[in-house]
Each structure stands twice: as C-alpha cells, then as structure tokens.
Specification:
It is built from twelve helices and 19 strands. It is an alpha+beta fold.
C-alpha cells in the first residue's frame, strides 16, 4: 500500500502515555490508512508491548519492531527508518501527542511550497487545564514562512528537536542518530543545512509532555558529558561544511552556556565538575569575542557567560572553577523576572512585562499592567534559571507552580531551569501588581562552607600538585 507519511515512534516503558500518543495518530484528519506507523518497542519491561500490540493488530498500517535489548531512542529510530516506504517521515516520542490536523495540514503546505523540510509549532503539555509554549522565553513558530536560505535565519540553528519536523526522502541519508542523551542534535543540523526549502508552520502543533522522569528534565553529570560529545560532533561538521562554521558556533555557544549553567547551579561533586570542564575543554574549538557578540546580538537575553566561555582554554579546570564558580558565584545570578499576562490569548511572549534585577534574599518588584485589559491569569517567573527555594510573601492568589512540592507549603522548591507561579484571580481593575518574594541564594558564608565541604579545591584533590595560588591571580586582566 502507498502511504502519504511515515511516523516513527521509539517506545520504552511508556504504558502511562502511549495510548494518548497512538490515539493522536489514529485520529489524524489525514486518515490512518494514509499513515505508516512504525513503532519500535525498545525492550520495555512494563505493559507497553501489550498496548502497542493491540494497535498493531487492529490497524494494518501499523508495523511493530521489537528490540531484544534496550538500544535507546537513537538506534531505534535508525532501525525504523530502514522500514519506511513513503516519501516523507516524521518522529513522535511515546509520551507526546499531536494536533488532529497536524499531518494533513503539514503535507498540504509541503506540496504547496515544494518544501523538503517542514518545521511545525510545538507547545509544552503540563497535564493541567492549559497548554503553554515549550519555552516561553524563546521564539516559537509564530507565522507561516518559507525559507530558502537558512543563513538568513540563523536562529533556526537552535531548532534541534527531531520530532517537530517532516523530512523528504532526499534528507533520509542525514537521519542517522547517535547514541547518548543528545542523539538528535547532529541529525537536526544536517537536515537544516541540506534542506533546500524549509517551511515553518504555525498551524500544526506537537504537544511535548513535560515528564519529570525524562532525560531532559533530569540534568546529571552524564548529561553534561553527552552534550559535550554532541558539541564535538557539531564542530566536526566544519570540515564538510566550512561555510557554515559561524552558524555551528552559534549552536555550540548555546550548548556551552547550558553546560556552564548546570555546573554553576548544581552542587555536584568537585571531581565531577572537573571532569566536565576538562571534557568541555577537549571538544571545543577556539572562540573569539566576535563569536560571542554575534550570539548576544541574536539572543540578547540568553548569554551572561561570555567571558567564561572565552576563558575555557586559558585556565586549567581547577582554576576555571575557582574563578568562575566559587569566587564569583553571586555574580552569576543577575537575572530577569517576568510577568506573563493572559488577557484572552494565553501566556505568550508578546504579553510580557520583564524586570532586570539582582536577586536578593527578599525582593520587591512592581509590574505595570496598564496596557492590558480583561486579565484572567498571570504567570510570574521569578528568575531566569534554577534556584533552591522561593516564597511569595504578600498573599497573592497562587493556583499553580512548577515546583517539586506543594504551592501550599511555606516555600516552594524548584529544581527545574524555568521556575514559575500561576496567579489566578480577577485582575481587571488593577493597573499594577506588587510581588514580594524571598529567595534562598548562596551567601559568602555558604561559599566558604562549600569550599570546606569539598576539602579545599587546591590542596586535597588527588591530582598532580598545584601552585599555592590560583593561576588567574597572577594573570593580568
């Protein structure tokens, strides 16, 4: 049978979500008879196989592959691609789902604009009564747009998810996923570089489930090592695609930023922090100030670690950590607080009031609401980045928060990278709102204690002897 689209779904222990995922494919307006569904059961040990077997038995367009051992999503996708019979393929993760018109609308635009790559909109599904953008601080696919020269759209190089895209057969040879946590980065970049006509669609929507058990929601030391490996893969593309070097730098500066952010804000063992810095130093190529400036121009709210990145190759790992984490830790938390206003259009980047500030233990911020009417909800993001504890102290109506404990507790504990509160009340008669909140951020005494807990960053490491002073003290800035 001839199919209009093939959908590849790698599955591992997804019994809680797989039915919703598969139902969203079966219910597509394109018609399930037109969709080849290739499911790879990656040696699940729950009831996942029983559930997907029921769909495979019921729908002739379903094809089931069972791995004898757990190979990971990358290798599972590679195996499934060999079975694709249509001219277009897309990916779907087992805990996510798609809008009912997604595939029909996407293929219609592909045919209309002769696109070989289509990127559609995505939103984060939180499990509550509303859906919010996957990252409210970054630009989403807000309009329908055809791109014939990706160099004129450098922000697209940060679009590395494989699952909000439909690929033409001419791009299949680039869809070779690596092993590891960030197996999709190299695939997305190769597809973006080699696509001749890219269509951005706001009308098809991929719902990315915010699953606390997923790799992307649980940052570990291994996350940093795997992302460092991905950085090397991306930089190595400069040999085959030298004309794209500056764009590869943009993406990798973003990834380097992420790794440094994790090191600065997570209290990992010192030996692991040194391991990560040494790994990062081994995979990056020399970066210049103009590379950082170019990134800051495109993403002015993102980068605050420009000097850190430029100095990665100047200091040994110990000295780098001492200078940029421990001695200067408080300087790392200069941030931005944001208030997103739902005035009938949900929370979005256009309806935002932002305040730059230096977080203290007690903070008082006033946000103007004069330009908004019919306000139903507010979303307050106290900080760009993760911290330990936060407490709103002036009796505002908190209905939800993405904290690890209850909103009714004395303070909320956040371990994610994008903390927020939802305030739900009638705000129609107010022109501004005062938000008072406490943050627990490391003090100088905390830093001193951290030094003692880690048994002295210079003398007690079981590595080769170091000088009595950090090398940067002797370096002229």
């Amino acid at each position: 049978m001839s199919y209009k689209l093939s959908v590849i779904i790698p599955v591992f222990n997804a019994e809680d979500y797989i039915k919703e995922c598969l139902d969203s494919v079966v219910d597509q307006s394109l018609g399930i008879d037109n969709i080849e569904v290739i499911i790879v059961n990656d040696n699940s040990c729950d009831s996942t196989l029983d559930i997907i077997s029921q769909y495979a038995d019921k729908y002739p367009s379903f094809k089931l592959i069972s791995n004898k051992s757990n190979l990971g999503p990358g290798e599972s996708r590679n195996m499934a691609l060999k079975e694709v019979s249509s001219d277009y393929v897309t990916y779907l993760d087992a805990d996510d789902f798609i809008s009912q018109n997604a595939y029909e609308d996407a293929l219609s635009k592909i045919n209309e604009f002769n696109a070989d790559l289509l990127i559609y909109n995505w939103e984060t599904y939180t499990g509550s009564d509303y859906v919010e953008p996957i990252n409210i601080h970054q630009q989403n696919t807000l309009e329908n747009k055809l791109i014939t020269d990706i160099k004129q759209n450098p922000k697209l190089f940060l679009s590395t998810a494989p699952w909000n895209k439909i690929y033409h057969r001419s791009l299949f040879k680039y869809l070779k996923f690596s092993k590891g946590f960030y197996e999709d980065n190299i695939v997305a970049i190769l597809a973006l570089i080699n696509a001749k006509r890219i269509f951005l669609s706001k009308d098809s929507i991929y719902y990315y489930r915010k699953n606390s058990d997923s790799t992307t929601e649980n940052i570990t030391v291994d996350s940093s090592i795997h992302l460092s490996n991905s950085i090397k893969e991306i930089f190595d593309l400069r040999y085959e695609y030298p004309e794209f070097l500056n764009y590869l730098k943009l993406l990798n500066i973003n990834f380097i930023y992420d790794i440094l952010f994790w090191i600065y804000y997570y209290n990992w063992a010192l030996a692991d922090e040194l391991k990560i810095i040494n790994k990062l130093k081994s995979v990056i190529i020399p970066l210049k100030k103009e590379d950082i400036d170019r990134f800051k121009q495109l993403f002015p709210d993102k980068l605050s670690y420009g000097e850190d990145i430029l100095d990665l190759d100047k200091y040994d790992a110990e000295t780098f950590l001492a200078k940029y984490k421990y001695f200067n830790r408080l300087n790392k938390v200069n941030s931005q607080a944001s208030l997103y206003v739902d005035a009938g259009n949900g929370f979005n980047e256009s309806d935002k009031v932002a305040i730059d500030y230096s977080p203290l233990k007690k903070n008082n911020l006033e946000f103007s609401l004069e330009k908004f009417d019919n306000i139903s909800k507010l979303r307050f993001d106290p900080l760009e980045g993760s911290f330990v504890k936060c407490r709103i102290t002036n009796n505002l109506p908190i209905s939800d928060a993405n904290c690890d404990n209850s909103v009714d507790d004395d303070c909320q504990i956040f371990t994610n990278l994008d903390p927020y509160y939802v305030l739900d009340a009638d705000f129609s008669d107010i022109s501004s709102i005062q938000i008072n909140f406490d943050l627990e951020i490391l003090t100088n005494d905390d830093i001193a204690n951290l030094f003692r807990q880690k048994d002295n960053i210079i003398n007690d490491l079981q590595v080769k002897p170091k000088k009595r002073k950090f090398s940067f003290f002797n370096k002229k800035e």
